TrEMBL record:
Name of the protein: TIGR03617 family F420-dependent LLM class oxidoreductase
Lineage of producing organism: Bacteria, Bacillati, Actinomycetota, Actinomycetes, Sporichthyales
EC number(s) on file: 1.-.-.-
Organism: Epidermidibacterium keratini
GO MF term set: oxidoreductase activity, acting on paired donors, with incorporation or reduction of molecular oxygen
Alphabetized Pfam families for the sequence: Bac_luciferase
Length: 335
């Protein structure tokens, strides 16, 4: 299984060094999320300091931008990285799009499908010289003049991976994207029974098969014996899982396991802003279903056992601070 590294976003200025280390340590990819920093700028540094490793946004917020702005930066990064860039996109949720980014929100799955089709149409114009005549429900792109057309480069447009949890968005990934990025708040059971069938349904609509769509897992892990105490590691996992579990959009994952009422309790605590109480509410069974906990060798073997037949690659998610050495050991255990 290929394993991707994720930038330490608190030290974003060392992106070049972090990416170079990930490449030398044997990681397959290096990703940058969109949280407290822009997800694209660190990848420019990473491209200059590496030669082989894949570089990706994990993820960029699609609805905070237009297809044209994403097309520009995606095509540029594909060229700068000499074909190693992958555009990872996610929808976020309505409050963030409307209240944080001040952008429109409606029909997220349909909007995302159209955004990806618009991106592909723009890139076809730049790379293949096809006329730009995209008209949709949400986006229209019909003007492109020579002065605004980037020169075609030999590496072509980047691949697109789409983050999804719900079935509709997952089907969109199967239909129009090159890959699916699973949310960290998922389980092997949800992947097998809900996610992969939805990917296949979308792929079938496009005349493709499940094997044509790359599936990226984000297993949450707690590496014991690292810089933090074991209690801190487990507390961090409990709080992260409880936070995700409080989000109504992620409730179907809990419901599949018969834990829907837990989602209601967590959501109520979040509305009351009782963040510290949420993690303590999480039963051990739920913790162990969502997270993989152990030393580096145990975590590595359990990732392979739990997800090896379900995903094609994985980006390890570690709530809190985990030493680079410990994560490198997990990668070594999987190689």
């Amino acid at each position: 299984m290929r394993i991707d590294a994720t930038i330490d976003i608190q030290n974003v200025r060392t992106a070049a060094q972090q990416a170079a280390h990930a490449e030398s340590a044997g990681y397959a990819g290096f990703g940058v999320p969109e949280t407290s920093h822009d997800p694209f700028l660190p990848l420019v540094q990473a491209a200059a300091s590496t030669e082989r490793i894949e570089l990706s946004t994990g993820v960029a917020i699609a609805f905070a931008r237009t297809p044209m702005t994403l097309a520009n930066i995606g095509y540029d990064l594909a060229g700068i990285s000499e074909g190693r860039f992958v555009l990872g996109l996610g929808s976020q949720i309505k409050p963030h799009i409307t209240r944080r980014f001040s952008m429109p929100w409606s029909k997220p799955a349909a909007r995302m499908r159209e955004m990806i089709l618009a991106l592909q149409a723009i890139w076809a114009n730049w790379h293949e010289g096809k006329p730009l005549r995209f008209r949709g429900e949400f986006y229209t792109h019909t003007l492109m003049t020579p002065v605004f057309t980037p020169p075609a480069h030999e590496w072509g447009p980047p691949r697109i991976r789409l983050a999804a949890v719900g079935e509709l968005m997952t089907e969109v990934a199967g239909e129009v994207a090159d890959g699916l990025i699973c949310h960290g708040f998922t389980t092997a059971k949800y992947l097998a029974e809900v996610t992969l069938p939805a990917v296949e349904a979308g792929a079938t609509r496009a005349g493709r098969s499940l094997g044509d769509v790359e599936v990226v897992g984000l297993p949450m892990v707690g590496v014991l014996g690292a810089d933090r105490t074991d209690d801190d590691v487990i507390t961090g996992l409990r709080e992260r899982i409880a936070f995700y579990g409080s989000t109504p959009a992620y409730r179907p994952v809990l419901e599949l396991h018969g834990w829907g009422s837990l989602g209601d309790e967590l959501h109520g605590l979040s509305l009351a802003r009782k963040w510290q109480e949420m993690g303590a509410l999480l039963p051990d069974e739920v913790l162990e279903t969502f997270a993989i906990i152990g030393n580096a060798d145990e975590v590595g073997s359990e990732i392979e056992r739990r997800y090896g037949s379900l995903v094609t690659r994985a980006a390890i998610s570690t709530p809190g601070s985990t030493s680079t050495t410990e994560l490198d050991s997990v990668v070594a255990a999987l190689s």
